[in-house]
Amino acid sequence: MSVSINVLQTLLQELNGVMAADLTPLFALTTTVKLEEGEAYIREGDTSRKLAFIEKGMLRAYTTKANGDEATLFLRWEGQFIASHDTIIHHQPARFIYRALEPATMVEIDYDKLEAVLRERPEFEPLRIFFLKRMLSEALENIESFVMFSPEERYQRLLDSRWDIVNRVPDKYIASMLGITPVSLSRIRKRLHDKGRKN
Q1: Do 155 and 177 form a contact (C-beta atoms < 8 A)?
Q2: pLDDT attached to residue 145
Q3: Residue among 149, 40, 134, 49 nearest 90 (CA)
Q4: Residue 68: what are its φ and ψ, rounded to 5°?
Q5: Quick one: which of 2, 28, 60, 84 has the most CB atoms within 10 Å?
Q6: Which residues of the chain have pLDDT under 70?
Q7: Given CA atoms 146, 149, 150, 152 in this order, what sign does their dihedral have?
Q8: What is the pLDDT of residue 3?
Q9: Which residues, in sequence order, are CB contacts of 80 under 8 Å at separation 6+?
């Protein structure tokens, strides 16, 4: 069993009612996917309903606006799931591009095949609820952060949760995700640095 499967199995075992032995039919449907830096995982317009768990690496979801600028929707890294909300939830073509920012290794499952298993094995239903809750929670957290926090606070929260991420991602992508310009991000960093020196 691969490292990815072991990590994912440990995570899923935390769900009530899902035992280790019960997960065998599910993992039989998974495949290991490796992406090179810059390789697209999901392209705009894709209709495949795939769900992946990231063992190693980082991916960015983004779109290109009418003026040619790229807008980053979110970043995903080790220990997180990645999927197109459009294809999984809305059964519509993906509106965003999901691209590897660095070499990535993931465990992937076809969501249609997962649903087929769920029809035969209703005891797996907690898995579907888990995945959908994760997607909804991440989307709501992103929206709420723009309503409740300033750009500086959003950046500080990112540092608090995963400080190493900022060293793995180009500043322009972090700035775009925070809804600010790279110049504004540079100013925020300077302010935080100055505060740190005073403390």
Answers
A1: no
A2: 87
A3: 49
A4: 95, -10
A5: 84
A6: 1-23, 197-199
A7: negative
A8: 46
A9: 53, 54
Rounded to an integer, what distance in angstroms lies between the CA atom of residue 9 and that of residue 30? 12
Which residue is associated with the tokens 């606006």? 65
Cα distances (angstroms) measured from residue 120 to each of 13, 123, 124, 127: 20, 9, 9, 14
The residue type of 110 is: D
Residue 144: exposure state from Cβ atoms within 10 A (0-12, 13-18, ≥19): exposed
At residue 65, what is the residue type? K
Predicted local distance difference test score (pLDDT) of residue 198: 56
Burial class (CB in 10 A: 0-12, 13-18, 19+), 174: buried
How long is the chain? 199
User: Nearest to residue 56, comparing CAs of 21, 7, 115, 19?
Assistant: 7
Structural tokens at position 66: 């009418």
Pick from 34, 28, 26: nearest CA to 131? 26
Residues 6+ away with beta carbon under 8 Å from 43: 94, 97
